[in-house]
Known about the structure:
mainly beta, five-stranded antiparallel beta sheet
Amino acid sequence: MMNENGRHRAYVGRKSEWAARVANNAPSEWLVALHSNDCLVEYWEPRSVDNQMPHDRDEIYVIVAGDGVLELHGDIRPVAAGDLIFVPASMPHCFVRHSPDLAMWIVFFGPRKTTAAISLEPISRVTSDVFPPT
Length: 134
């Protein structure tokens, strides 16, 4: 979001606001919420089969409603509201199943990458010893 001087201003995106915008923008399932040089934020409510292709930028998904099953480079993961998912650029991924109310913010960030510059590593398993209780 830019102000009249061309500078970025603070912004709070509310799920209820963006869900209404998507509903009013049918048949689109997503809308761009914020776009700047190295950052693109979208709000997405998948209504059909997810047939996305790998992207050329790193991505962060923040699930805000519903649940589903995400395939990340062949690894199957259940996801639900409150989850944060990081997907490196060029990694194959898609939601193989999802509830009708699945909704999320997606942040694409960083420089665009070519597949030649990417080396895909196995997905890390998060354990309690990686993030000990505080």
